[in-house]
Design a protein that fits this description.
The complex is a heterodimer of chains A (164) and B (660). Chain A folds into 2 domains: 30 residues; 123 residues, Nucleic acid-binding proteins (OB fold (Dihydrolipoamide Acetyltransferase, E2P)), CATH 2.40.50. Chain A is 31% helix and 29% strand. The C terminus of chain A is likely disordered. In chain A, helix 2 links the parallel strand 1 and strand 2. Chain A is an alpha+beta fold and 164 residues long. In chain A, the strands form 2 sheets. A 5-stranded mixed barrel of chain A has the order 2-4-5-7-6. A two-stranded antiparallel sheet of chain A has the order 8-9. Among the domains of chain B are: 162 residues, Four Helix Bundle (Hemerythrin (Met), subunit A), CATH 1.20.120; 120 residues, no CATH class; 100 residues. In chain B, strands 3-4-5-6-7 form a 5-stranded antiparallel sheet, with no helix packed on it. Classes of the chains: A alpha+beta (164), B alpha+beta (660). At the A-B interface, helix 1, strand 1 and helix 3 of A face helix 12, strand 1, helix 13, strand 2 and strand 7 of B. Strand 1 of chain A pairs antiparallel with strand 1 of chain B, so a sheet runs across the interface. Chain B: It is a multi-pass membrane protein. Chain B: This is Heme lyase CcmF/NrfE family subunit. Chain B: Belongs to the CcmF/CycK/Ccl1/NrfE/CcsA family. Chain B: Keywords: Cell inner membrane, Cell membrane, Cytochrome c-type biogenesis, Lyase, Membrane, Transmembrane, Transmembrane helix. Chain B: Required for the biogenesis of c-type cytochromes. Possible subunit of a heme lyase.
Chain lengths: 164, 660
C-alpha cells in the first residue's frame, strides 16, 4: 500500500467511527432526553405517554401524603396550575412542602405524573435552576431575595372566578 | 495579620508569575542563559508564595477566624478538626486557591527536576505555565478573594456544607486537582514545542511521566468521588452522568488517549502532530471542567459560585487559552515533521485505534454535557441529558475499544501479526466463552446482554495478563526459568497489564451490579424483618446519637443468613442544626466484593416506623478496585527505567537495547 492509500484508508476508518458515533448521538438526543416543563406547560400541552418530562415547581403545601409504605403522592405547583405526582421510593433529604423540586418521569393517561426520580438537591437554599428561571419569568422570584410571594398567598389573592 | 500576609503573598505571586511569563521566553528567543534561568527561580518562588497564601487561609480555618468572610461562610467552631482543615477547599474561593497551588506546584517540579531538559524548552514551558498561573491568580484576586475581611466579626460561622463533611470529600478535591491541573504540564510542553517548532522523541519521553502522574491522580480522584457519591448521597448509584462528573471524566478519556499516543511518539517518532493536539485538548477539557464547575452555569453541590462575573472571567480564560493554543497549532503544526511509517495492523495501529475510540467517546460525553447548555442559550428550551443518552452513545463506542484492548500489547511495532496475537489469546477467549455460557445457563438464557458483558469483562481480565505470561514463557521454559523471566520483564509491561486488568475489574463490577442488584423499599418498625438476596435484615432499634455538630438518628439492623447473625449494620440520618440540613449516612456491609447497602427515608406520621431502602449490590466494590488497579498500573509504568524522570542518555540506551 502506498502512503497515500494508507492515509485514505485511515481517514475513511476515522470517518466511519466518528459518523457512527454522531449517528448514535443524534438518535439518543431525539429519544432519550427529558424536557423541562412547568405545571402550566404540562396542563396546556399534554405530552405523549412515552415522552420523558422533568416537571419542576414547588411542592404544594398540604398535598404530601404517604400511604404508610414507601408510596408518596404530592402536587407540584407553579402557583398557577398544579399537577399531582405519584412516586415510590425514598424522597431526598431536602424534600419539603413549599420547596423547589424536580420530578422526572412521564404523564400518565389519568393526568397523574408518575415520577421515577425526585430531585431536591443538597443545599437548603438550593432551588433547581429551571424552577428559579420559571418563577422569575412570572415575577415570583428575585435574585438575592428568593421567593417574593408565597405560593398560597398568590393563589388566595387571585380574584374569585378567574377560572382557577 | 496572618490573613493579610496571605493576601499579600498572593498578590506578590501574581507579579512573580507575570515576570515568569515573559523573561524565560525572551531568554529562549535571544539565547540568553541568564534570562532563561529566571524561570527556575520564579517558578519555585511563586510556588512558595502561593503555599504561604494557602497556609494562611488554612490557618484561619483551623483557628476559626470568623473575621474572614470565607471562613465565616464555610466553617463552624464546633466542626471536628479534620473538617476545619478540609473546609479550606470546601468552597469556591479556597478551592480555586488549591487549584493555583497545585498549578504552581507542578511548575516548580518542572523547574527543579527539569535540569536535563534542553534549556530553551524548559524556559518556554515555564513561561507558558506562568501564563496559566497568572490568568487564574488574576481571577482569584479580582473575583474570588478568599481573604476578604468581615467587620464586625461574627461569633459563629455558618458551617461547612454538611454533605462535604466526610473523609472521602476531604481527599477527593486535591486528588482530582492533581489530575486536572497536572495535564497543564503536557499543555505547556505542547505549546513550547509549537513555539520552538521542534519536537522529537525526547519531548515525548518528557511529557509521558507528567501525563502519567496527572492521570494516576485523576483516576483515583474520580474513583474516590464516585465512591463518595455512592455512600453519601444514599441513592445507591455510583455514577450519575452529572455534568460535574462528566467534567472530570472528559479529561480522563482524553488523557488516557494522550498516554497512549505519546507512547507511539516516544517509541516510533510517529503521530507527533496528533499528540500535540491531544495534549492541548486534554488540558482544554480540564479548563472546560473548571469552567463548568466553577462558573455556576450548572446548579449542583459543586457550584458554589453564582456570581456571573466569575463565569464570564473563566469563560474568557477558557477562550483565550484554548483558542490561542489551537490558532498556534494551526499555524505551526505543519512545521513539525512526520514520523515513522507503520502498517495498519501493528502496535502503532492499535494505539491509533485506541485514540480514535477514546476521543470519540470523549466527544459523545462532551456533546451530552454541553448540548443542554447550548440549547438553553440558543432556543431557550430546557432539557436534561441523563443516563439513557450516555447508555446509547458512550456504551456502544466503548465496546469495540474494550474488545481490542488485549490485542494491543501483543502486536509488534511497525508490523504486527494479528493471527499470532489471536492465537496467544485462546485462553482468554476460552474464559470469556465460559463466562458467556455460564451466565446464559444461570439466567436461563434471558439476559443475553449481561452474558456478553461478563464475557467482555473476562476477556479483558485474562487477555491483559496474556502478554506477561506469554513473554515469561512458563509453558515453554518451565516454571523456574519462567519465573525469572517474569520478574525480569520491564515494569512498563506490568503497568500495561495491570491497568488493562483494572479496566476488566471495573467492567466486571459494573456489569454485575447493573444486572444482578436487588432492591427492596419498605416501611419497617422495630422488630420487623425483610428478606433480600438470601439475607434477612432485622430492624433492632432506633437510637439518638449526638455528634460534634449534628444530631444523628441511627437505626440498628442485624443481618442473618439461615438464622445465623452475619453482621450488624448502622444506618443513620444526621441533622445539622446550623444549616438546617439533613444528610444520609447509609449503612454498608461489605461481604467479599459485594455490599449490602441500607439507607433511611422519612419516618411515618406516627414516628413508629420508617421507610428503608435496601440494596444487595453484588461485586460493586470491583468498580473502584479496578480504578486502583489502573492507578497502580500507572505507577508501575512510571517506575519503568526508561521513563524515570531525568533518565540520563546512557541508561536510556541500555533500556532500548533490553527492549529489542
Amino acid at each position: 500500500m502506498t502512503r497515500k492509500a494508507k492515509r485514505l484508508y485511515s481517514i475513511g476508518a476515522m470517518l466511519v467511527v466518528v459518523g457512527a458515533a454522531a449517528g448514535l448521538v443524534l438518535t439518543a438526543l431525539s429519544s432519550s432526553v427529558a424536557y423541562f416543563q412547568s405545571p402550566t406547560d404540562l396542563v396546556k400541552n399534554v405530552p405523549g405517554p412515552t415522552q420523558r418530562i422533568r416537571l419542576g415547581g414547588l411542592v404544594e403545601e398540604g398535598t404530601v401524603k404517604r400511604d404508610g409504605s414507601s408510596h408518596v403522592t404530592f402536587s407540584v405547583t407553579d402557583t398557577v396550575d398544579s399537577v399531582p405526582v405519584t412516586y415510590t421510593g425514598i424522597l431526598p433529604d431536602l424534600f419539603r412542602e413549599g420547596q423547589g423540586v424536580i420530578a422526572e418521569g412521564t404523564l400518565g393517561p389519568d393526568r397523574v405524573f408518575v415520577a421515577d426520580t425526585v430531585l431536591a438537591k443538597h443545599d437548603e437554599t438550593y432551588m433547581p435552576k429551571e424552577v428559579v428561571d420559571d418563577l422569575k419569568a412570572r415575577g415570583l422570584w428575585e435574585d438575592g431575595k428568593g421567593l417574593v410571594k408565597k405560593p398560597e398567598e398568590t393563589v388566595s389573592a387571585a380574584p374569585v372566578g378567574a377560572g382557577s | 495579620m496572618i490573613v493579610e500576609i496571605g493576601h499579600f503573598a498572593l498578590v506578590l505571586s501574581l507579579s512573580v508569575a507575570l515576570v515568569q511569563s515573559v523573561l524565560p521566553m525572551l531568554g529562549a528567543r535571544r539565547g540568553d542563559q541568564r534570562l532563561m534561568e529566571t524561570g527556575t527561580i520564579a517558578a519555585s518562588g511563586g510556588f512558595v508564595l502561593i503555599a504561604i497564601a494557602f497556609s494562611a487561609l488554612m490557618a484561619s480555618y483551623v483557628t476559626s477566624d470568623f473575621s474572614v468572610l470565607n471562613v465565616f461562610e464555610n466553617s463552624n467552631s464546633r466542626q471536628p478538626l479534620l473538617y476545619k482543615f478540609t473546609s479550606t477547599w470546601g468552597n469556591h474561593e479556597g478551592s480555586m486557591l488549591l487549584w493555583v497551588l497545585i498549578l504552581a506546584f507542578f511548575g516548580a517540579l518542572v523547574a527543579l527536576f527539569g535540569r536535563d531538559l534542553p534549556a530553551t524548552l524548559k524556559a518556554n514551558v515555564l513561561s507558558v505555565q506562568a501564563w496559566i498561573l497568572a490568568a487564574f491568580l488574576l481571577f482569584i484576586l479580582l473575583t474570588s478573594n478568599p481573604f476578604q475581611r468581615l467587620d464586625p466579626a461574627p461569633m459563629e460561622g455558618q458551617d461547612l456544607n454538611p454533605i462535604l463533611q466526610d473523609v472521602g470529600l476531604a481527599i477527593h478535591p486535591p486528588m482530582l486537582y492533581l489530575g486536572y491541573v497536572g495535564f497543564s504540564i503536557a499543555f505547556s510542553f505542547a505549546i513550547a514545542a509549537l513555539i520552538d517548532g521542534r519536537i522529537d522523541a525526547a519531548w515525548a519521553r518528557w511529557v509521558r511521566p507528567w501525563t502519567l502522574i496527572a492521570w494516576i491522580f485523576l483516576t483515583l480522584g474520580i474513583a474516590m468521588g464516585s465512591y463518595w457519591a455512592y455512600y453519601e448521597l444514599g441513592w445507591g448509584g455510583w455514577w450519575f452522568w452529572d455534568p460535574v462528573e462528566n467534567a472530570s471524566f472528559m479529561p480522563w478519556l482524553a488523557g488516557t488517549a494522550l498516554l497512549h499516543s505519546a507512547l507511539v511518539m516516544e517509541k516510533r517518532a510517529a503521530l507527533k502532530i496528533w499528540t500535540i493536539l491531544l495534549a492541548i485538548l486534554t488540558f482544554s477539557l480540564s479548563l472546560l471542567g473548571t469552567f463548568l464547575v466553577r462558573s455556576g452555569v450548572l446548579t449542583s453541590v459543586h457550584a458554589f459560585a453564582t456570581d456571573p462575573a466569575r463565569g464570564v472571567f473563566i469563560l474568557a480564560i477558557l477562550c483565550l487559552f484554548i483558542g490561542g493554543a489551537l490558532v498556534l497549532f494551526a499555524l505551526r503544526a505543519s512545521a513539525l515533521e512526520g514520523g515513522g511509517l507503520f502498517a495498519p495492523i501493528s502496535r502503532e495501529g492499535a494505539l491509533v485505534f485506541n485514540n480514535l475510540f477514546l476521543t470519540t467517546a470523549a466527544a459523545t460525553v462532551l456533546v451530552g454535557t454541553l448540548y443542554p447548555l447550548l440549547l438553553e442559550v440558543v432556543a431557550g428550551e430546557k432539557i436534561s441529558v441523563g443516563a439513557p443518552f450516555f447508555d446509547l452513545t458512550f456504551g456502544p463506542v466503548m465496546v469495540p475499544l474494550l474488545f481490542a484492548v488485549p490485542f494491543g500489547p501483543l502486536l509488534g511495532w511497525k508490523r504486527g501479526d494479528l493471527l499470532g496475537a489471536a492465537q496467544r489469546l485462546y485462553f482468554a477467549a476460552g474464559c470469556a466463552l465460559a463466562a458467556l455460557v455460564g451466565i446464559l445457563a444461570y439466567t436461563g438464557g434471558t439476559k443475553i446482554l449481561t452474558a456478553f458483558g461478563f464475557a467482555l469483562a473476562f476477556w479483558l481480565l485474562f487477555g491483559s495478563l496474556t502478554d506477561l505470561f506469554s513473554r515469561a514463557a512458563f509453558l515453554k521454559k518451565g516454571w523456574r526459568t519462567g519465573l525469572a523471566r517474569f520478574v525480569g520483564l520491564p515494569r512498563s509491561a506490568f503497568g500495561t497489564a495491570l491497568a488493562h486488568f483494572g479496566l476488566g475489574v471495573t467492567l466486571l463490577g459494573i456489569v454485575s451490579v447493573s444486572s444482578f442488584q436487588e432492591e427492596v423499599i419498605t416501611t419497617m418498625a422495630p422488630g420487623s424483618s425483610v428478606e433480600i438476596a438470601g439475607y434477612s435484615l432485622t430492624f433492632d432499634r432506633i437510637a439518638q446519637r449526638p455528634g460534634a455538630n449534628f444530631d444523628a438518628q441511627a437505626v440498628h439492623f442485624s443481618v442473618r443468613r439461615d438464622g445465623v447473625v452475619m453482621t450488624e449494620i448502622d444506618s443513620s440520618k444526621r441533622f445539622f442544626p446550623v444549616r438546617q440540613m439533613t444528610t444520609t449516612e447509609s449503612g454498608i456491609w461489605t461481604h467479599g466484593f459485594s455490599q449490602l447497602y441500607v439507607s433511611l427515608g422519612d419516618p411515618s406520621a406516627d414516628k413508629q416506623s420508617i421507610v428503608v431502602r435496601i440494596w444487595w449490590k453484588p461485586l460493586v466494590t470491583l468498580i473502584w478496585i479496578g480504578a486502583v488497579f489502573m492507578a497502580v498500573g500507572g505507577a508501575f509504568s512510571l517506575a519503568d527505567r526508561r521513563l524515570r524522570v531525568g533518565a540520563p542518555e546512557r541508561s536510556r540506551r541500555k533500556a532500548s537495547l533490553a527492549e529489542a
